[in-house]
Amino acid sequence: RVLVFGSINMDLVAKVSRLPVPGETLLGHNFTTVPGGKGANQAVAVARLGIPTAMVGRVGKDQFGQELLQNLQSDHVQTDAVYIDASNTSGVAIIAVDDNAENHIIVIPGANGNVGEEDIERLIQQLPKASVLLLQLEIPLSAVQQAAQAAQQAGVQVILDPAPAPTELPRELYPVVDIITPNAVEAGQLVNFTVDRPESAAKAATILQQRGVKTAIIKLGATGVFCATADESFFIPAFSVKAIDTVAAGDAFNGGLAAALFQGYSLREAVIWGAATGALSATKAGAQSSLPTRETFEAFLQE
Ligand code: ADP
């Protein structure tokens, strides 16, 4: 199956005409709580494509924690290895969105920030049943490093989404990653020059490979995806869709990529699966609410 080791959050979203200035109180129009966190989003993306998926991470011993677990289970994500941490709150993102879709976001990692040794042990127990591990950067970097190392030793393919954008990654991390999947901004941060087109993505990919990753996949939004391995490099243009909200498009891409690799497809086919899942998620509002089911996915590829 596919394992995801990462963050689980509840997003608290307030809609307001304009964002408040410091010290100001405003009335908003509406409030929703929606499950999020890059780890959980990627797990749901894989599971919706009909692939057996398990999550390893932490929620708090609070109402959000219960809701987050139930939410994962309702999408058939295994949660046996999600620890309920009584010493912290569940991770939350407090989000204000105005009428122009500008936002303010405060992320409180909560239990995600406690992910460490004990969770690595739980992950190691799951590795023999897994073929792909998805990682992101919303849990402590030391845990990401250890997870990647353990997975590599167990012969499990490691996919790292270096998001949210880090200024730098430790050099020891690159050699234990099979596939790194930055978007344009994240790639730019990692290599210190602007990445916006296939040409600059190709340069960035070469640098990431020199640092030790086997394959670099650079997500260029509505442009497409650049991919470089030791043997080949190629560009896949984005599917043409009517995009309304690209929230979680990157998570959708990684879910589609992992689902295809789990099924034994080639890297090129897996990038196409990622691009299709990303494009579909851009056609619907929200994060997990925008992730396609296998049925929707197959109908889209038949078109
Ligand atoms: P992130 O969401 O991490 O910023 P991107 O915006 O690059 O990442 O989106 C991830 C992938 O989703 C893209 O590489 C592409 O395959 C797909 N995608 C995103 N936006 C669009 C769009 N407007 N049209 C078609 N595909 C898209």
Question: What would you give as the CATH superfamily of the domain at 2-7 and 36-90 and 111-160 and 239-302?
Answer: Ribokinase
Task: Give me the number of helical elements.
Answer: 9
Mean pLDDT, all residues:
96
- Gross morphology is globular
The tally of beta strands, per DSSP, is: 14
| Secondary-structure-derived class | alpha/beta
Biggest β-sheet description: 10 strands, mixed
- Broad CATH class of the domain at 2-7 and 36-90 and 111-160 and 239-302: Alpha Beta
- The assigned CATH architecture of the domain at 2-7 and 36-90 and 111-160 and 239-302 is 3-Layer(aba) Sandwich
Helix content: 25-40%
Strand content: 15-25%
Return Rg in Å: 18 Å
Tell me which ligands are bound: adenosine-5'-diphosphate
Could you describe the 3D structure shown?
- With 303 residues, the chain is of the alpha/beta class.
- Helix content is 35%, strand content 23%.
- The strands form two sheets. Strands 1, 4, 5, 6, 9, 10, 11, 12, 13 and 14 form a ten-stranded mixed beta sheet that branches.
- It is globular.
- The relative contact order is 0.14.
- The mean pLDDT is 96.
- Adenosine-5'-diphosphate is lined by residues 163, 183, 219-222, 225, 238-239, 241, 243, 246, 249-250, 253, 275, 278-279, 282.
